[in-house]
Amino acid sequence: MRRLLTVLLGSAALLTGVAHAADKKAPEKPAEVPKAIKTLHDGFLTLDTHLDTPEHFARQGWSMIDRHAVAEDGTQVDLPRMKAGGLDGGFFVIYTGQGELTAEGYRKARDFALNRATEIREMVAAHPDQFELAYTAEDAARINKAGKVFVFQSIENSWPIGEDLTLLETFYKTGVRMAGPVHFRNNQFADSSTDPKGKIWHGYSPLGLRWLAEANRLGILVDVSHASDDIVDQSVALSKAPIIASHSGAKAIFDHPRNLDDARIKKIADSGGAICINSVYLKASEQPSPELMAALKALGPLDDEATEAQVKARMVKMAALKTQYAFPPRANFETFMASMLHTLKIAGPKAVCIGADWDGGGGVEGLEDVADLPKITARLKAEGYSDADIQAIWSGNVLRLIAGAQAYAKSVAGK
């Protein structure tokens, strides 16, 4: 529910203190996508590497099959909007916010993450004519050809693994094919890029190095988004298969610890990996006024078991606050594309992908939900990228990395 509250407030900066976005003047909205470009876009096999939508699966009254609206309930992904935006599938995230590094903390995190994995599988099982779990790179095209959405699974923050690395295989058997070691705070495996306490491991811990080796052995794609620069360097050097940054951006556009500098973008690309562009951490945000912060606090917390009706009621209250107070400005489509185009300049189209952090704080003016995705294709075409380049960006690069991780695992199986 933390991520839902982020979207309800219109800027993650209001909840986490992390700056998102930017411009003082009202941004111009990108032009509507021409019919020919929309047809071209719909012909690509498309995926997003970071969909936090599973956080809504257990919400009473909310369904992945129904069309929702950002303005009404804060969500950005559902089947009708995926179809409207030509999004064929992606990685549905098993996210766990960082907690205590204790036996009890590990137990609670494990149970929470396994339950989230179950919720993903139950959503798919409830709609077998519309969704199908994907386990291999080849599954994506097969499922798409059958007219269904392909559902890969990923772990954001491996804290739930605790100190028992056999749990990584348990998650692999549920369908997890990508995992990141860490989130906003340091944990038992690695340093985060954003822990206010600074480094404790200077990269991976001894247990984290074993986590990395186990991920390689199983064929799980290693994700370095949220991890420290040391983790990026060590992952490139030590991983037996190329790595991915599933939802990151260019530090040259906004100098934030969550973003990657040019040297590391190039390092990931040169090693065969890829950087998937995020729609947060784009520019520094203005701070909300004390009056606005007080009004937001007065709304009180939204319970983790909040129903769809309760969430919509909260949105009505938020709309009233937006009328009364000046909210900090948001990022816009041009800044998002600046991050992508800069990364493309450094890494090339064979090392860039898209992971906008939908339902996890992502979305900008002009790119509000997945229905707006054809705008990215239109802009890439306008910048002179070929159809082959754009297909690689939308899914080819990620599917290559999934296949590479699994090929390594197969090569060492039984040794």
Describe the structure.
This protein has 415 residues and is α/β, with parallel strands linked by helices. It has helices at residues 2-9, 13-16, 35-43, 70-73, 79-85, 103-126, 137-145, 166-174, 206-218, 229-238, 262-270, 290-298, 308-324, 333-347, 374-382, 387-412; strands at 48-51, 89-95, 131-133, 149-156, 176-180, 221-222, 244-248, 274-277, 352-354. The protein contains 16 helices and 9 strands. The strands form 2 sheets. Strands 1, 2, 3, 4, 5 and 6 form a 6-stranded parallel β-sheet that branches. Strands 7-8-9 form a 3-stranded parallel β-sheet. Helix 8 (166-174) links the parallel strand 4 and strand 5 (176-180). The protein starts with a helix and ends with a helix.
Name some characteristics of this structure.
single chain; 415 residues; alpha/beta; six-stranded parallel beta sheet; three-stranded parallel beta sheet; 16 helices; disordered N terminus
Number of H- or I-type helical stretches? 16
End-to-end span in angstroms? 43 Å
What proportion of the residues form beta strands (DSSP E)? 5-15%
Task: Average the pLDDT over all residues and give the rounded result.
Answer: 91
> What characterizes the major β-sheet?
6 strands, parallel
Rg is 20 Å
Total strand segments = 9
The helix content, as a percent range, equals 40-55%
What would you call the shape?
A: globular
Outline:
The protein has 16 helices and nine strands. Helix content is 44%, strand content 10%. It has 415 residues and is α/β, with parallel strands linked by helices.
Question: What's the arrangement of secondary structure elements?
Answer:
Layout: H1 2-9, H2 13-16, H3 35-43, E1 48-51, H4 70-73, H5 79-85, E2 89-95, H6 103-126, E3 131-133, H7 137-145, E4 149-156, H8 166-174, E5 176-180, H9 206-218, E6 221-222, H10 229-238, E7 244-248, H11 262-270, E8 274-277, H12 290-298, H13 308-324, H14 333-347, E9 352-354, H15 374-382, H16 387-412
Parallel strand pairs: 1-2, 2-4, 3-4, 4-5, 5-6, 7-8, 8-9
